[in-house]
Write a structure and sequence with these properties.
mainly beta; Metal Binding Protein, Guanine Nucleotide Exchange Factor, Chain A; disordered N terminus; eight-stranded mixed sheet; about 35% strand
């Protein structure tokens, strides 16, 4: 990944926190993000009901669930997504071929402005009326492609 996509590898001064709409699930981030993304893939759009999804990608163990237990949905054979079983808020994404990391929806953070996306992925799936973000590194597919 290009060097402009990496965040400073230092732990946040204050542990960012977030949760679901109803408040049953609460979490905190205890380490720096690996990267932040804005995804246009159809799977993310269907999982969120939104035209795109913003993600903070973390190392396993850097996302701590402090309250509640997210429900799990296997959206494809190698992908697990979690959500609040009460209110339905989409929370995380994990791929089997990308072990060691977990993605958390940026919009579920109490302060989502603290984690702006630095890359925009799956632009080939973007809804035509969605604008692209000129501040992000663009990728037609996933950033690994």
């Amino acid at each position: 990944m290009p060097s402009d996509e990496r965040r400073e590898a230092t732990a946040p001064a204050i542990e960012p926190r977030g949760g679901c709409l109803c408040g049953d699930i609460r979490y905190r981030i205890v380490g720096p993000p690996l990267v932040t993304s804005f995804c246009h893939c159809r799977s993310c759009r269907l999982a969120t009901g939104a035209p795109a999804a913003a993600w903070v990608i973390l190392r396993d163990g850097d996302l701590v669930i402090d309250q509640g237990a997210p429900a799990l949905y296997r959206s494809s054979p190698d992908v697990e997504r979690t959500f609040c079983g009460r209110c339905g808020t989409s929370l995380t994404y994990r791929r089997a071929d990308r072990s060691g990391s977990i993605d958390i929806h940026t919009a579920t953070l109490d302060d989502p402005d603290a984690f702006p996306p630095v890359r925009e992925i799956w632009l080939e799936d973007k809804i035509a009326w969605m604008a692209t973000n000129d501040r992000c590194t663009p990728y037609p597919r996933g950033s690994a492609d």
